[in-house]
Design brief:
With 291 residues, the protein is an alpha/beta fold. 35% of the residues lie in helices and 13% in strands. The radius of gyration is 19 Å and the shape is globular.
């Protein structure tokens, strides 16, 4: 049985659900990397201030149905609680797993970097500024909170690339035996948002060579037709299942080339892998719903 850890978004965590359900792989931790820069600064390096979670929560009035998921995502902001998305309540967090366990494989992706901005606190006198990768749109009292916060800018592809390379180096220092597979976020479904689409494509052009030099296996962004998309972030269930199968074959059977690119000259290879339309989707429901 293979052990693995997720650092990323629903792109990796839904694939992970199939690795668990259909191949009996063991997921040791599941971290939602809501912004790669915040993850580096606050989870890995601890070089930026974060207020106690209770101080944040006491100011929030949740919209109907948003409280449970909102609190789960806030847990991912803090180093002591990140890594427990869709995990048992008593499961160790990411940092404890990195310290104590020997992990076979890490599954990473950059999807959140395409759309998440940081929410910055307007610090007053004698207060410390801080930032959270958390949207106030989940809050019923968003209008009142916005007087104390403001939204920053989206990450550039170049910044995202550098952040993820540093995250990979951090993993490799602590888990040198582990295999790392990186799923580049797709642009499919975002053609009407030029900035997001360009960020996805630019990342997928600039990241693979540098990550490969570190020994990382990079799968290019999947290019699919509209019928295989639920929305800009999510595919139909059968596509995640296919991706899980490819990872198993790559890991167990030595098949490491990206899907759809075997026996093709490099000059003809697209930055996007093209998968066939599956005919029998098999849904897997995550406890926190779609993120």
């Amino acid at each position: 049985m293979r052990s693995f850890v997720v650092l990323g978004s629903c792109l990796s965590s839904i694939v992970a659900a199939y690795l668990k359900a259909e191949y009996n792989w063991e997921m040791l931790a599941n971290s939602s990397v809501l912004r790669s820069d915040h993850f580096l600064d606050c989870v890995i390096s601890h070089n930026k201030y974060l207020p106690p979670k209770a101080n944040i929560v006491e100011d929030i009035v949740w919209k109907d149905g948003m409280g449970t998921d909102g609190l789960r995502l806030l847990d991912e902001v803090y180093p002591e609680t990140t890594g427990r998305i869709d995990m048992p309540a008593d499961a160790p967090g990411l940092l404890e797993v990195l310290q104590k366990e020997s992990v076979d494989l890490f599954l990473l992706d950059n999807l959140h970097d395409l759309s998440h901005v940081l929410t910055h606190y307007r610090a007053g006198l004698d207060e410390k500024p801080y930032s959270l990768p958390f949207s106030l749109s989940r809050c019923e009292n968003e209008t009142a909170l916005i007087s104390s916060y403001y939204y920053g800018e989206l990450l550039t592809a170049d910044d995202s690339v550098e952040n993820w390379l540093n995250i990979i180096r951090y993993i490799q220092l602590r888990q040198p035996q582990a295999r790392i597979i990186f799923l580049c976020a797709h642009g499919a479904g975002s053609e009407d948002i030029p900035q997001r689409y360009a960020a996805a494509m630019n990342f997928s052009e600039r990241f693979p060579a540098r990550a490969s030099a570190l020994g990382v296996e990079v799968l290019p962004p999947v290019k699919v037709d509209a019928q295989l998309l639920l929305d800009r972030d999510h595919f139909v269930a059968s596509l995640y299942r296919a991706m899980a199968g490819h990872i198993v074959v790559a890991t167990e059977g030595g098949w490491s080339a990206p899907v759809g690119q075997h026996d093709r000259p490099a000059s003809e290879m697209s930055h996007e892998a093209v998968l066939p339309t599956p005919t029998r989707p098999t849904p897997i429901m995550l406890s926190g719903g779609v993120r």
